[in-house]
Amino acid sequence: MLSHRREFLVAWLETHLARHTILVVDDDPDILDYASGVLEEYGYAVLAAADGATALVLLRDHPEIDLLFTDIVMPGLHGAEVAKRACQQRPGLKVLFTSGYAADVVPAGRLLKKPYRPHQLTQEVALILGARRNDRPSHRQQ
User: Fold this and answer.
1) Neighbour-count burial for 50-82, b at 16+ CB within 10 Å, e otherwise
2) Minimum mean pLDDT among 10-14, 17-21, 42-46, 124-128: which range?
3) CA 25 → CA 9, 19, 21, 80, 126, distances in Å?
4) Which domains does the chain have, with CATH numbers?
5) Closest CA to 83 of 57, 118, 124, 52
6) Res 134: pLDDT
7) Within 10 Å of residue 129's Cβ, how many Cβ atoms?
8) Most buried of 28, 64, 77, 119 (most Cβ within 10 A)?
């Protein structure tokens, strides 16, 4: 049964991922490259920003962005502030936070703890993006 669910999810992902654009924000260039590469490999269109100010400019200039994936702890604009401003600019924008720090500094919302593996990132992104779609995968479908 688990195998069937995994096959269903893989098929759904292959069909739906290319329609989405993700803005990845992290001040660590290695993590920024890693996350961007993983998401591109899974078929997402990716825009990358090394800081919050750049992220907000990209968000303004790219209406196709579906999801903001941002580190929380960054110099300048921290991830929570980036998300707040991004959602003011674009109501309904989906946000996924990431951090290697304790959960008590995490704003309300979904969090992917660092370090994360490719499947953890792509699964979380697919679930968040699917949550606003009528065709999201369901474990009840067999």
Assistant:
1) eebebbbebbeeeeebbbbbbbbebeebbbbbb
2) 10-14
3) 26, 20, 13, 12, 18
4) 2-130 (3.40.50.2300)
5) 52
6) 35
7) 20
8) 77
